[in-house]
Each structure stands twice: as structure tokens, then as C-alpha cells.
Amino acid sequence: METIWFGLLASVIAGLATGAGALPVLFTRRISDKLLDALLGFSAGVMLAAASFSLIMPAINLSGPVIVAVGVVLGALVLHLVDRFVPHFHPASGMEGVPSRLPRVWLFVLAITIHNFPEGLAVGVSFGGGDVAAGLVVAMAIGLQNMPEGLAVALPLVREGYSRRKSVLYGTLTGLVEPLGGLLGLALVSVFLPILPWGIAFAAGAMLFVVSDEMIPESHRKGFEREATFGLISGFVLMMFLDCMFV
Predict the structure, then answer these.
(1) In the chain, pLDDT over 90 holds for what percent of residues?
(2) Average pLDDT value over all residues in the chain
(3) Which H or E element spans position 128?
(4) Which member of 5, 38, 67, 172 lies 3.0 to 4.6 Å from 19 by CB, making a disulfide possible if both were Cys?
(5) At a CB cut-off of 8 Å and minimum separation 6, what does 87 contact?
């Protein structure tokens, strides 16, 4: 039970990092697209390394490559279906999913919620297996990449005319879906320990889908592809070292 509560707390802190990342909009709205794209690339690199070293490799050690391959594909397919059928809005690419009459700000919040849920799930399944060190590394990775995401959430809201405080609030709320994913992951793998490799691989596949489908294209949309690429490499290398140091 201590591990479960510790995992839930870690997923809450990782989710709140989104709100911390949004705080700069309280002081300025003039953050360059070049810097923002580099930060988004950094987030993508952290997620890639976390999926590879903190999730996929441990899952292979537990069950072999076949189960992990199936789990990764299932995670990506589920995110694909959610992305296709749940209405949501991206400032750059516009409306996605089925049509909806919800206010645009809530459709935007839904988009980030879809993005963040797999991250919370990854934290939950990592702790649910009983390996606190591995869970802390995943939670650290999610918190790191959530901070640039929080800024990327809040800035478009400010530019859409929302107050700075509301923009920070919405950014924080989008991160708080992660404890729900964390709780689900904790509950599933704690009760049904044999599904641990499946859960880890599923979370990794969902994260890989988000990186490839949203984060990298978004960071390349405004003409700063090289800055985003070096941001990705920096995030990947940093997370690789963190994983090797603490696990």
C-alpha cells in the first residue's frame, strides 16, 4: 500500500509540473517560437527515452519481445482511436475527432488530456510493479517533459484572449488528468501482477504515438526544425543518463 500511495503522489507531482511550466505567462507572453519549439523537442526526447529505457526494456526483461511488441501496438492503436473519435482542438492544426459544440477552450483541454493520460498510466504501471526506483525515474521524466508542455498550453490560451491566470489554471488542470491514469495503472498491475509487462508496453506504445503524431510535428510546424531536433536529442540524452543513474 505504501508503494501505491507513493506512486499516486508521484503522478500528482508530475502532473502539477504542467502548471509550473505555465507560470512564465504570468510575466510575459513574448516567448519566441524558436525557444518553444526547442522545448517541445526536448519534451519529445525525454518521452522517447522514457518509453525506450524505462518502459520497453524492463518489459522485455520481464516477458520477452513478443508480448512487448503486441502491447506497444495496442497502446498506439487505442490512442489512435481516441484521437480519431474524441472531439478536441489543437491551435496549430485545428479541430480533430468528431464534430462538437463544446467551447473551443474545453476542446483544447481535451486535446491535452488525451496527450497526458498515457503519461500518468506510465507512472502508475511503473510503481505498480513494486519497483520504486523505476517508478521515480518515470515520474521524473514525465515531470520534466510536462513543464515545456505547460508553457505550450498556456501561451496559445493567452493569445486567444484568456487571462493569464486562467491560462495557468487550464494548463494545470490538463496535467491533473495524469493522477487518474496513474491510479488506473497502479490498480491494474497491483491487483493483476501478470499483466505488468502488458501494461508497461501499452503505456510505452501510447507515449510513442503521442511523440510521433503530435509533439514532433508540432515542434516542426513553424520552421525551427533544427532547433527542435537538437532539443529532442538533448532530452533523450538527459533521460538516458537519468535512467542509467537511478535504475
Answers:
(1) 26
(2) 84
(3) helix 104-128
(4) 172
(5) 95, 96, 97, 98, 99, 100, 102, 107, 110
Total domains in the fold of the chain: 1
Distance CA 235, CA 35 (A): 14
In angstroms, the CA 242 to CA 50 distance is 10
Q: In the structure grid, which three cell numbers stand for residue 116, read together?
A: 497526458
Query: HSE (CB half, 13 Å, CA atoms) of 34?
Result: 2
**Structural domain for 151, as ranges:** 2-246
Q: Is the pLDDT of residue 228 over 90?
A: yes
For the chain, what's the residue count?
Answer: 247
Average pLDDT over residues 203-223: 90
Write phi, then psi, for 95 (nearest 5 degrees). Answer: -75, 140
Amino acid letter, residue 97: G
d(CA 18, CA 32): 19
CA-CA distances (angstroms) from residue 232 to 12, 70, 99, 142, 164?
25, 26, 33, 15, 28
pLDDT above 80: residue 84: yes
Buried b (16+ CB within 10 A) or exposed e, 36-56: bbbbbbbbbbbbbbbbbbbbb
Q: Closest Cα to residue 50, out of 149, 123, 111?
A: 123
